[in-house]
Amino acid sequence: MGTTTGGQSVKFMDWTSTTDTTGTLWKSINGTGDISLTGLHKLADGTLVATGGKEYVNGQWRTLGDANGDGYVFKVSPQNANGTFNFEVDRAANCGLQVLKGTLN
Which of 38, 90, 96, 99 would give a disulfide with 52, using CB separation of 3.0 to 4.6 Å? Predict the structure, then answer.
């Protein structure tokens, strides 16, 4: 479990090992639902990234866009000293290409 910087609950699920290339970020924020992630892999520094995915918005799946131009739609940092992980997800284009940030436990 975790929270966004806005205090909403999130949960990273369906990713069980470093060989998995898909996962899900569960959330319920302003009429939007899960984010399905593809192309998951770890970078040399230990950051977990996804190169594609889609977000459930108002009853339809919408493709994620690279909102910040880094080439990824999802990033989870290596573990922080307090045991948490920081995350960023670039939301679907019709959500204004926002970057949703927060912490996972």
Answer: 38
Going by their DSSP bridges, the two strands 2-4 and 48-50 should be labelled as: unpaired
Residue 102: CB partners within 8 Å, gap ≥ 6?
2, 3, 4, 5, 8, 10, 86, 87
- Do 2 and 102 form a contact (C-beta atoms < 8 A)? yes
CA 18 from chain centre, in angstroms, equals 16
pTM to 2 decimal places? 0.86
Sign for the pseudo-dihedral over CA of 72, 77, 78, 79: negative
Which residues sit opposite 57 in a β-bridge?
A: 32, 60
The DSSP code for 52 is E
The span from the CA of 37 to the CA of 32, in Å, is 15
**Cα separation of 75 and 51, whole Å?**
9
